[in-house]
Amino acid sequence: MRRPSVGTARNVWVAGFTLAAVLQGVFGRRFARGTTWGRNAGWQREITVWNVGTLVTAAGPAGLGPEADRAQVRGFAVLSTLFGLNHLAAAVRAPRSGSNWFGAGLNAIGITVGVAALAAPRPGVRAPDRR
């Protein structure tokens, strides 16, 4: 099986940050109904702002090559692990909280793609001789 590149993994997270910004910014009330946390307009705006800021920050190193992508993917993997665990804990406490399951699942996808990309051999780096 071919592993995703770090650029592909980075783009998966960019799509996720975009989706989160839209969900919280445009569909915040609807999304909140499916969480254990409920609606909090102030915090949901903060989440939207955070995601937009992350998108702007991600755009800066875009195109600088795989090492820049790799650095971003490492950071995004940490974020998704923490966000995913937060959503999963809320979903386990309230199994009918579909938005929490959705958040946990999307973060799990990001982590899976990111870890697979980080585990792939780096292009141009020779594997150690195992003789």
**How many β-strands, per DSSP?**
0
Indicate the low-confidence ranges by residue numbers.
none
- Tell me the radius of gyration: 17 Å
What is the approximate shape? globular
Count every helix, treating DSSP H or I runs of 4 or more residues as helices: 5
How would you state the average pLDDT, rounded?
91
Descriptive notes:
- The structure is a single chain.
- This protein has 131 residues and is mainly alpha-helical.
- The protein has 5 helices and no strands.
- It has helices spanning 6-25, 28-33, 41-59, 66-93, 98-119.
- It is globular and about 55 Å long.
- The two termini are 25 Å apart.
Brief descriptors of the model:
0% strand; 73% helix; globular; mainly alpha; 131 residues; 5 helices
Note the topology.
Blueprint: H1 6-25, H2 28-33, H3 41-59, H4 66-93, H5 98-119
Helix pairs in contact: 1-3, 1-4, 1-5, 4-5
Summarize the structure.
The protein is mainly alpha-helical.
